[in-house]
Specification:
- 2 copies of one chain form a homodimer.
- Chain A has helices at residues 16-22, 24-27, 38-57, 71-85, 101-111, 130-136, 159-169, 240-278, 305-314, 334-338, 343-346, 360-380; strands at 4-5, 65-68, 92-96, 116-120, 141-145, 172-176, 195-199, 210-214, 282-284, 295-300, 317-318, 349-353.
- The first copy, chain A, is α/β, with parallel strands linked by helices.
- Chain A folds into 2 domains: 4-10 and 258-380, Aspartate Aminotransferase, domain 1 (Alpha-Beta Complex), CATH 3.90.1150.10; 16-253, Type I PLP-dependent aspartate aminotransferase-like (Major domain) (Aspartate Aminotransferase, domain 2, 3-Layer(aba) Sandwich), CATH 3.40.640.10.
- A 7-stranded mixed beta sheet of chain A has the order 2-8-7-6-5-3-4, with helices on both faces. In chain A, strands 9-10-12 form a 3-stranded antiparallel beta sheet. A two-stranded parallel ribbon of chain A has the order 1-11.
- Chain A starts with a strand and ends in an 18-residue tail after the last helix.
């Protein structure tokens, strides 16, 4: 059957080379890397080589990488880790209103413990305006966290400017780059980033491994307390296979990134152009150019996003609708609310994420199938073609 | 070369059947289980089947299992999760003084946030006396955490009695059973346990997966905030291969447990008896009978544990010395301190952990090699054979 997997932001197959690299670490090289004896040291050495590869992908040093179990854990460690370590200096955080739930909910958790958070609004494209960030900063501000690019709308934030404002004022700057690393080049030093979250799954490593980059000067309270793993910054026996796989995937990503970006961008532009041309009443979300190369996002009028995803899957086409939260309950994504999408329109959100393994044939196949699927769903809709007033939908509780 | 891997508490090879079960989840069944479409639902279903197997191993229901990245994360989630959820009810915790660092350090972290912890002393075998626990409980006590069996000394605590005291008083009881699950039968209902931490690696699953059992009534604040994974109790894309592997390993462990225990115990008793017989000036630690079937632990006079482990490895024998912390710094393990082992003697701690894959031949090989290794190290020791006064060693900062 023909098909197209265009949900690489949700999950991506582990590459053959990565799988080959990790298999020996299950039943053969099984020793615990914290052990002093030879077979433990060998595993430790292999994990450290992987750390160097992950660091190199973002221009960092290996000792600035803490392995975690996911991008979400990295975000929790960054937000809570700085808050608890700098509690005596101040209690104010600034985050954008289009952060991932793991950032938003970490900030909300801290509010129970006498921290305060300013949630910065964004414009219609999802941009955080640097001047607005500058105004939000107070003497007691200890951390600013702005996502590198949203998985929902794809817009790449002006990180250099935003981080620069923090650097001038001596405030720690964190960015969630889970959707970006591997899709677009990022150098933590060029961009003045102090903390950066990334995920192995985004670059073709297995699920269950992530990392937090931290600039050496940044003090962090561990999220997972315990032993001396990760230099005392993250306890628990290391996920050795995940680490080795992340290293291999990062090595491949660094090699391929310069070549694949243009191809991926071309596929994306054909998909966006084709959908706009063939489907009536569709709104593109995020910025038209300043967006992730493989990211295309829309809201379809009078469509229920989950139904769309479900019907597309029957044609072998895999895409996503809004955030994980929005995908489980009929609630509006806070990201789409923040860029001013009407609640009823936000119900019909769809996100296509393309990577280097996709082809133009697949994109053409989507363009062939999608219009009929949308038309069919609209034929069932009680609101399609009617001029209904805006209705109320709960915002997804972040 | 002959050899014996007797460090199963640190790491254990992933079983062939487990490896076969997980390989398809890297490059073929790669979809994100949170996605609504067919290939996502299939992965979700497979992960849920694994959850049922893990639950069955400890007599729990599948909806009472939260997958984590390690036993250490499960311990952090239990301690901090209850503390933050019950903060309005009370601020007092009781833990034993022989807990794993992930419990001790979670409690110490909470002390920074106006929680108080009582660290219960233990007797010479490492037992927590139930009457002492009863006396330590206050009106503001919200959680008691007592390890099921210490990885350092192997003693199995009187969990039924300890948990019963908590049940009578309506206080939540947690046990860290990372070293026990898979080695000895545990039923959370028979033992009145409300929360129990376990690790995949302990039962032959890959590193990087753990779980927390929680009785349905227990409210927990997430440790990792974010999306709706694990019913909102633990955010981050699921480590699908880890989960599937944990399920398969739990299924095998449940089948094998009744048969292997006696064999493992026999090997252990031969090892303990043989070492006592052949090596002078060695102290057995933990209780002689009420201990994990595969666990043998000692302190060798005038020996530096790391040197012993290192020399044994040259003969292909793999064992451990004290805790992970102790294995990185010349400091005394708090567990050995708590059972009254002199600081100088505690330096020479060695732990052998046997599982169903070990043979009597391997044990005899250890008994053949160990006495000479100990004698050789003692021949280098400035204190061997001298009646030196007790000297000061820092206690490992937990």
């Amino acid at each position: 059957m023909k098909g197209a997997y265009l949900d690489h932001a949700s999950a991506t197959p582990v590459r053959k080379e990565v799988l080959e690299a990790i298999v020996p670490y299950f039943s053969e090289q099984y020793a615990n890397p914290s052990n002093v004896y030879d077979i433990g040291s060998q595993v430790k050495q292999d994990a450290e080589a992987a750390r160097a590869n992950v660091a190199a992908l973002i221009g960092a040093s290996p000792e600035e990488i803490i392995f975690t179990s996911s991008g979400a854990e990295a975000n929790n460690l960054a937000i809570k880790g700085v808050a608890f370590a700098k509690q005596k200096k101040g209690n104010h955080l600034v985050v954008s209103s289009i952060e991932h739930h793991s950032v938003l909910n970490s900030a909300r958790f801290l509010e129970r413990l006498d921290f305060e958070t300013t949630f910065l609004p964004v414009d219609e494209y999802g941009f955080v305006e640097p001047a607005r960030l500058a105004r939000a900063i107070r003497p007691e501000t200890i951390l600013v966290s702005i996502i590198h690019a949203s998985t929902e709308i794809g817009t790449i934030e002006p990180i250099f400017e935003l981080a620069g404002i923090c650097k001038e004022r001596g405030i720690i700057f964190h960015t969630d780059a889970v959707a970006s690393v591997g899709s677009t080049p990022i150098d933590v030093n060029e961009l003045n980033i102090d903390l950066l979250s990334l995920s192995g799954a985004s670059v073709g490593a297995p699920k269950g491994i992530g990392a937090l980059y931290f600039r050496k000067k940044v003090r962090l309270m561990p999220l997972i307390h315990g032993g001396i793993q990760e230099n005392g910054r993250r306890a628990g026996t290391e996920n050795v296979a995940g680490i080795v796989g992340f290293g291999k995937a990062a090595e491949i990503a660094a090699d391929e990134l310069p070549h694949k970006t243009e191809q991926v961008r071309m596929l994306r532009d054909r998909l966006i152009g084709g959908i706009i041309e063939r489907v009536p009443k569709v709104t593109r979300t995020g910025h038209p150019e300043k967006r992730l190369p493989g990211h295309a996002s829309f809201c379809f009028e009078a469509i229920e996003g989950e139904a769309l995803i479900f019907m597309l899957a029957q044609a072998g086409i895999y895409a996503n609708t809004g955030s994980a939260c929005a995908s489980k309950a009929l609630k509006t994504s806070p990201v789409l609310g923040a860029i001013g999408i009407r609640a009823d329109l936000a119900q019909g959100s769809a996100v296509f994420t393309i990577d280097g393994s996709n082809t133009m044939e697949e994109i053409e196949y989507v363009l062939e199938k999608l219009p009929a699927v949308v038309a069919r769903l609209r034929s069932f809709s009680p609101i399609w073609g009617k001029d209904i007033p805006e209705y109320e939908v709960d915002v997804c509780p972040a």
